[in-house]
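Supplementary Methods. Inverse-folding protocol.

Structures were first reduced to a discrete structure-token string of length 361. This string, shown here, constituted the complete conditioning input.
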């Protein structure tokens, strides 16, 4: 009996995969009921007790004068420390990326996903080691319910990508945004290093950016948003993530057993601590579970820059940073290569459990 159910599910997954049109392809067909593959069990929603308490607001950190005034910089470092220890999330304003570039980037992502589906089909793949991939549900064949969204992924670390490899509708903007977000991320790695009491170059020297990836998400409007998720609750397999979100909303973080909105702020970028940062800081900085709700109003776009180590290298091992350990604070995790961490994370899929458990000593 269960084999039959599994076979039906596999058949439906394959059929969806083979359309190469993603979730937007379903919406374009004009469906009014979403396929059961996307249904989440009701308990996923019963946890959705949104908090409206004022104290439950993700910190907003202003980077004005960060490079000019040493006092301002120290204050910013304290705020980064506090936010990383308590929330694992913060928003940054006055980060130095021009606001018109943020707008142009969101427009570019919309143009990518709303272009002729034939162009997207040619880029459709489940192989995220390719430099440029259009995909939907990276964990499609895992047992978890599907998510209501599509992604255009750029492996920023592959130096074989040429400008002309990008689809013409976003050729200029994506690499340009990539350069800016990379620069901001390098600054964040310095601030996070200092927030840990380490040399500013510590995390950069650990190559926490050599396998970066840019994920351009598109969450089409969903006819039955109460049955599914844009992205199910998960932590990121990163050191840190820098996220650009549009004005639609739906991003939430799991904090003290409540789901709390990350309100869209047009000029802000959202930063979150990833699992591998939690691992190397020996649980000092928190990788917070987060998710994206589906909506039936308008498409939502977001762009996540994943700060990761080189996945092609098995040599470098990541474990709790020696300088942070002491007799009272012994290592809680074993060392792992970044590639092994991501392989475990991806095989598990977004099933709501933490990949960190697997690496605990
Ligand atoms: C992610 C993610 C959130 C969003 O890419 O890991 O959590 O708002 N994205 O799309
Ligand atoms: Ni995420």
């Amino acid at each position: 009996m269960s084999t039959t159910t599994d076979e039906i599910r596999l058949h439906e997954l394959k059929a969806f995969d083979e359309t190469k049109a993603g979730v937007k392809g379903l919406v374009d067909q004009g469906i009014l009921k979403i396929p059961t593959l996307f249904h989440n069990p009701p308990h996923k929603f019963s946890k959705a007790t949104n908090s409206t308490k004022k104290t439950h607001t993700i910190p907003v950190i202003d980077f004005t004068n960060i490079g000019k005034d040493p006092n301002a910089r120290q204050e910013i470092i304290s705020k980064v420390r506090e936010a990383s220890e308590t929330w694992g999330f913060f928003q940054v304003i006055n980060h130095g990326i021009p606001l018109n570039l943020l707008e142009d980037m969101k427009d570019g992502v919309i143009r990518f996903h709303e272009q002729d589906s034939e162009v997207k089909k040619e880029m459709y793949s489940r192989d995220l080691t390719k430099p440029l991939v259009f995909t939907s549900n990276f964990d499609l064949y895992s047992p978890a319910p599907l998510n209501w969204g599509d992604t255009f992924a750029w492996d920023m670390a592959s130096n074989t990508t040429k400008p002309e490899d990008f689809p013409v509708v976003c050729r200029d903007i994506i690499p340009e945004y990539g350069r800016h977000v990379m620069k901001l991320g390098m600054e964040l790695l310095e601030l996070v290093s200092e927030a840990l009491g380490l040399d500013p170059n510590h995390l950069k020297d650990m190559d926490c950016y050599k396998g970066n990836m840019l994920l351009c998400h598109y969450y089409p409007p969903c006819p039955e948003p109460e049955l599914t998720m844009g992205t199910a609750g998960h932590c990121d397999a990163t050191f840190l993530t820098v996220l650009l979100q549009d004005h639609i909303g739906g991003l939430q973080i799991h904090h003290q057993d409540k789901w709390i909105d990350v309100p869209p702020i047009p000029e802000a970028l959202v930063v979150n601590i990833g699992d591998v940062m939690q691992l190397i800081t020996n649980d000092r900085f928190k990788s917070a579970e987060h998710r994206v709700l589906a909506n039936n109003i308008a498409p939502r776009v977001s762009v996540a820059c994943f700060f990761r180590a080189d996945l092609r290298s098995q040599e470098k091992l990541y474990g709790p940073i020696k300088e942070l350990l002491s007799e009272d604070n012994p290592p809680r995790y074993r060392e792992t290569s970044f590639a092994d961490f991501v392989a475990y994370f991806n095989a598990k899929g977004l099933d709501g459990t933490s990949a960190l458990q697997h690496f605990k000593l």
